[in-house]
Amino acid sequence: MQVYLFLTGMKRIVYIFFFLLFSVFSYAQDFGAALLVGANFSQVDGDQLGGYNKLGLNLGLEINRKINSDWEGAFEIRFSMKGAKKVIDINNPTPDLRLSYHYLEVPVLAKYTKLDKIMPYAGLSVGVNVFNQRDDNGIISKEEKLNKTEVFFHLGGSYHLNNKWAIDLRHSYSLFSVRDYPIIVNSPTVFGRAGWYNRLFTAGLRYNLQ
Question: What stretches in the chain show pLDDT beneath 70?
Answer without folding.
Answer: 1-29, 88-95, 181-193
